[in-house]
Design brief:
heterodimer, A: 441 residues, mainly alpha, B: 173 residues, alpha+beta, Alpha-Beta Plaits, 2 domains, 4-stranded antiparallel β-sheet, 5 helices
C-alpha cells in the first residue's frame, strides 16, 4: 500500500493556492475598458518610439485610407481589449485541457491493454487507474468552463456569440452542428461515456483481485473493446468541438488524430514519470527495467507519430495553399514562430536523439529528463492550438499561464496520489500477473 | 592447436538453453550453436556481445538523409528549378517542406538496404554460398552445439553427455 506522503500533499496544496492566487490575479489584471487598452497601446507606442510609429503608419497606409485611421484605431483597441479579456480564460483552458487529455489518453491506453490482453503492463495498471482518477474531476471542471463560455463569460468560442454568427455566413451554415445546446449535450455524452468506463473498469479490476473466477476479467475485456470504439469516435469529435471550433472557419480532416497523438504521448510519459517516482520511493518493486523500457519505446514511437501527423497536416495545407485553410498556419508562423517551431525541437528532435539508443531507454534519469521535455513540448502544442484563435497576437507566457498550470497540476497531483494510496499497487487478480512480473526483454 | 570440435545434438530448446549455461559455467568454449529457429535469450546465455547493427543503421540513415538533401537541392534548386504549384524554387529552405517526404524515404531506404547488405557481409552470406550447418537436421527440429576441444576430449564428451544431448559427434574443422 502506498501512503500519500504529507510532504507531497502539502506540495500539491501549495501549488493549488499559489495557482489560484495567480489565476485570480490574471483575471483582475485584465483591462476593464477599451479606454484602458487605448492608454496601454499608446504607452507601448511611446516606449517603442519613432520606429513603431513609422511602422504603424506604413501598415495603415497600405491597408486603409488615411482618413480612416482614427476609426481603425478605435476598432483595433476594442479588438485588443477582447483578446486581452480572453487571455486568462485561454490560459486556464489550455491547462484544463492539457491535464484532462493526459488522464483521458491514459484511459485509452489502459483500455488498449485490456482489449489486446497484453501481459506486460499489468503491474502498471494501478498507476494508470490512479491517473484516470483525475478524469471525472477534470471533466467537471471542463464542463463548468464550457457552461461559463456559453453564458458569454468569455469569448473563446466565437460561434457561441449570436452577434458574430449573424454576420458570418460560414458559421451560419455550420450552426446545425455548432450551436450551444448541442455542443453542451455532446460534451456531456463524451464525458459520461468516458467516466462510465473509467468507474466500471476500476470496479472490475478491484473485484478481480479477490475473485475466484475470471468473470470480472471477461467483462473488463468486453467493456474495454466497446469503450475503444466509443472513444475513437468521441475523441475525434471532442477535438473538433473543443479545439478546432475555436477557429470556426478552418478545418482539417486529420485533426482528431493529431490531437490524439499529443494526448497519448503525454499520457505514456506521465505513466512513466509517476512509475519512476514511486519506484524511487521504494514502491512498485515488481516494476523492472523492461517495463520502463517499453514505456520509453512508446514515448519514442508516439513522439515520431505525433511529428508525422503534425507534418502531414502542415504539408498538405502548405502545398495546397488554399486561403481558408492556410490562414491557420499563417497566423502561427507570423505571431507564434518561437513556440510553434520550438515545439518541434522539444517534441521531435530531442526525444528522437535521446531515446533512440536502446540502452538509454532503461536509464531512469534519461526517461525523466526526456519526459519533462515531452510534457513541456506538448503543453506548448496545446497552447499553439488554442491561443492563436483566442488571444491572437496578444499572447505571452506570464502569470495567468503559469499559475493555471500550477493550479491544475496541484489538483492533478492531489487526486492521482490519493487514488494511488487507496488500493494495493499490484493488480494481483489479473490472469496475466505472472507474465507481467516475469517480463524481461 | 587442434581444430577439433564436439557437436552435441539436442532435441529441445529448453534443454539446449540449460546445456549452454552448464557448458559455459564449466569454462568450455562454445564455438557456435545451430538452431532451426531463433531461441529467445540464447545470445545472452552464450555471452555473445550485443549487435552493433543499430549503430550502422543510424549512420546509414544519416547518409541517406544527407544524400536526399543534396539530391533535392541539386535537382530542384540548382540544376533545373521548377515552379510546381507556385511554390518558391529559389532557395532550399523555402521549398524544404516539399522535400521532407523524400528525405524521410531516402533515410529509410539507405538504412534498410545497407543494413541488410551489412548483415550479409558480416554473416559471410552471398549468392550460391554453401550452407555451414553441420547437420541438415538443424533446419528441421534439432539443435547443435559446437564446443571446441581444448584438453581432455573424453572428459568433455562425458560432460556433454550429462547435459541431455541425444547425439554426439567429434569432427575436425
Amino acid at each position: 500500500m502506498y501512503t500519500f506522503s504529507s510532504k507531497l500533499k502539502t506540495f500539491s496544496f501549495a501549488l493549488m493556492i499559489v495557482g489560484l492566487l495567480g489565476v485570480a490575479y490574471g483575471f483582475f489584471s485584465t483591462p476593464s475598458s477599451v479606454e484602458d487598452v487605448k492608454v496601454m497601446l499608446q504607452e507601448t507606442h511611446d516606449a517603442h518610439g519613432e520606429v513603431a510609429v513609422t511602422h504603424e503608419n506604413n501598415a495603415h497606409a497600405s491597408e486603409n485610407a488615411v482618413h480612416e485611421t482614427t476609426h481603425s484605431d478605435d476598432a483595433h483597441a476594442e479588438h485588443v481589449f477582447h483578446l486581452l479579456k480572453n487571455k486568462p480564460w485561454s490560459a486556464l483552458y489550455v491547462a484544463l485541457f492539457f491535464f484532462f487529455m493526459i488522464s483521458l489518453a491514459t484511459l485509452a491506453f489502459y483500455a488498449i491493454q485490456h482489449a489486446s490482453q497484453a501481459g506486460w503492463p499489468v503491474v502498471l495498471f494501478r498507476v494508470m487507474e490512479a491517473i484516470t482518477a483525475y478524469l471525472p474531476i477534470g471533466a467537471i471542471l471542463l464542463f463548468v468552463f464550457f457552461v461559463l463560455s456559453s453564458l458569454h463569460m468569455n469569448h473563446l468560442f466565437t460561434w457561441m456569440d449570436p452577434e458574430v454568427v449573424a454576420h458570418d455566413e460560414l458559421i451560419q451554415n455550420k450552426s446545425g452542428y455548432l450551436n450551444v445546446p448541442f455542443f453542451l449535450i455532446r460534451a456531456a455524452i463524451y464525458m459520461a461515456g468516458w467516466i462510465w468506463y473509467r468507474q466500471y473498469s476500476r470496479k472490475l479490476t478491484l473485484a478481480q483481485d479477490n475473485a475466484s473466477d475470471l468473470s470480472n476479467y471477461t467483462k473488463l475485456f468486453k467493456s474495454s473493446a466497446a469503450f475503444l470504439v466509443f472513444f475513437l469516435v468521441t475523441e475525434s469529435m471532442m477535438s473538433w468541438d473543443w479545439i478546432m471550433s475555436l477557429d470556426p472557419h478552418w478545418f482539417s480532416t486529420l485533426f482528431g488524430w493529431y490531437v490524439f497523438a499529443s494526448m497519448i504521448v503525454s499520457a505514456i510519459t506521465t505513466i512513466a514519470l509517476i512509475s519512476i517516482y514511486l519506484k524511487g520511493k521504494g514502491y512498485l518493486e515488481f516494476v523492472n527495467d523492461s517495463h520502463l523500457h517499453d514505456l520509453a519505446k512508446f514515448m519514442f514511437g508516439f513522439s515520431i507519430f505525433w511529428t508525422y501527423l503534425w507534418f502531414s497536416q502542415f504539408m498538405l495545407i502548405w502545398y495546397a495553399n488554399i486561403p481558408e485553410e492556410v490562414t491557420y498556419f499563417v497566423s502561427r508562423f507570423n505571431e507564434y514562430k518561437i513556440p510553434f517551431l520550438g515545439m518541434l525541437v522539444l517534441n521531435f528532435v530531442f526525444p528522437l536523439l535521446v531515446l533512440m539508443n536502446s540502452d538509454y531507454k532503461r536509464v531512469n534519469w534519461f526517461i525523466v529528463c526526456t519526459g519533462i521535455v515531452i510534457l513541456i513540448g506538448h503543453y506548448v502544442d496545446i497552447y499553439v492550438m488554442i491561443m492563436p484563435a483566442t488571444v491572437g497576437d496578444q499572447w505571452s507566457f506570464g502569470v495567468s499561464e503559469l499559475s493555471s498550470i500550477l493550479l491544475i497540476l496541484g489538483i492533478f497531483i492531489y487526486v492521482v496520489f490519493t487514488a494511488l494510496s487507496k488500493v494495493p499497487l499490484l493488480a494481483k487478480g489479473n490472469p496475466f500477473i505472472k507474465e507481467s512480473e516475469d517480463f524481461h526483454y | 592447436m587442434s581444430n577439433k570440435v564436439v557437436q552435441a545434438m539436442y532435441n529441445d530448446d529448453d534443454i539446449l538453453m540449460d546445456a549452454v549455461k552448464e557448458v559455459r559455467a564449466a569454462n568450455h568454449h562454445i564455438e557456435e550453436v545451430y538452431t532451426p529457429f531463433p531461441v529467445h535469450g540464447l545470445d545472452k546465455a552464450m555471452g555473445l556481445k550485443g549487435t552493433r547493427i543499430a549503430i550502422t543503421a543510424f549512420m546509414y540513415g544519416c547518409v541517406g538523409f544527407s544524400f536526399a538533401v543534396w539530391m533535392m537541392n541539386y535537382m530542384m534548386i540548382e540544376q533545373w528549378p521548377q515552379d510546381i504549384g507556385g511554390k518558391p524554387s529559389f532557395t532550399f529552405f523555402q521549398n524544404m517542406p516539399a522535400f521532407v517526404p523524400i528525405m524521410f524515404e531516402m533515410s529509410v531506404f539507405f538504412a534498410a538496404h545497407l543494413m541488410v547488405i551489412t548483415f550479409y557481409m558480416r554473416s559471410k552470406l552471398w549468392p550460391f554460398k554453401q550452407a555451414e550447418n553441420p547437420d541438415p537436421r538443424t533446419t528441421d527440429d534439432m539443435f547443435v552445439m559446437e564446443v571446441a576441444v581444448e584438453g581432455d576430449e573424453a572428459e568433455l564428451i562425458s560432460f556433454l553427455e550429462k547435459t541431455g544431448t541425444v547425439e554426439i559427434k567429434v569432427t575436425e574443422k
